[in-house]
Amino acid sequence: MAISKARTRMPRLTAAVATTRMPRLTAAVATTRMPRLTAAVATAAVVLLLVSSRGLRRGACSSQRTVPLLPPAPNGSQLLYVLRGSNATASLLASYQQMQRDLGADRVFLTFDDTHGPWPHGNATRMTSPRTPDSPHVLLFNQSEAEAVTAGVTEHMQYFEQPSLVLFYRHIGDSISYQHVWRLENDVRCNGNYSQCLAPSAALAHDLLCSWEPMHITAGANVWRFSQLGGALADVPMCERHGCFVPVMRISQRALGLGSQAMGLSSGYMEVFWSTLLAQAGMTMAVLPAESIGWLEYFVNYAVQSKQHSVPSTPDNRLYHPIKE
């Protein structure tokens, strides 16, 4: 069964489903206007709850165990933008420069994996270094630096996915004020202006915006990598796991804080890790607005070239994935 077909058979995540079968949260976590240090302490409390026997029960799903969703995260009025890449191609540089023009150079970052080759296009700094007012916006990391974040808990997890995003979160720290981070993979393109592509999401206050409708397995079916969680998250019953496709994603600061605290305790395939972790904490997820999407698909290689020819020749301010060189 193709992954794309498997996904179409799953029910959409409704608010009612999202609120069921999650551990009860402390009042400290439920607040929305916490200072960053207080928020870090609160997310640590959630992680401790997740690894406790009361928070996770292997193989058990009780309709009696419900909690309210957390209050919405603040809207996207303070945004950062991250483009992730590992091949220093002309198209990666062009995408980064376009994002700087469209979104503001002071809010746009490129995280570059230099494990297999250096960044040749100007100044850069390592994400493991303290950030200063003069630090470049090209941020470097390698496999060993990212894996150090995980403290050896790496099952089903790729070092350049959530560990690199946690490195970014820790590198930025308090140096820039923000509420959400947009993260785009290197093979995502905006056919037009990035600001207009992403603007329809401004009114959405969810903790995670996904490229496809978030999915929830109600029958415990073992598809779409739902089995690929490690550490504490491996104890989440299959019927409580969530997943979403994220070549383009917007994630809240408090969700990143939760992910940072989970490093060394939990691991998993990125598109199950974030959505399951956030669902267990009562955070909310939604799909990107239709106005932003041209097509965001998963393709095996043979299908990509024919599909990308369908990107309109006239700018339509929509996002497309995957665009292969």
Describe this structure as you would to a colleague.
The protein starts with a helix and ends with a strand. The strands form 4 sheets. It has an 8-stranded mixed sheet with strand order 3-4-2-1-5-11-7-13, with helices on both faces. It has a 3-stranded mixed sheet with strand order 6-15-14, with no helix packed on it. Helix 4 (36-51) packs across helix 9 (253-262) and helix 7 crosses helix 9 (253-262). The longest helix has 16 residues, at 36-51. The chain has helices at 3-8, 15-18, 27-30, 36-51, 90-103, 143-149, 162-172, 194-198, 253-262, 270-280, 301-308; strands at 79-85, 108-113, 125-126, 138-141, 180-185, 189-190, 208-210, 215-216, 229-231, 242-243, 248-252, 266-268, 285-287, 293-296, 319-321. The chain has a single domain (3-27, 35-51, 65-71, 78-288), classed as Spore Coat Polysaccharide Biosynthesis Protein SpsA, Chain A (Alpha-Beta Complex). It is built from 11 helices and 15 strands. It has 325 residues and is α/β, with parallel strands linked by helices. Keywords: Transferase.
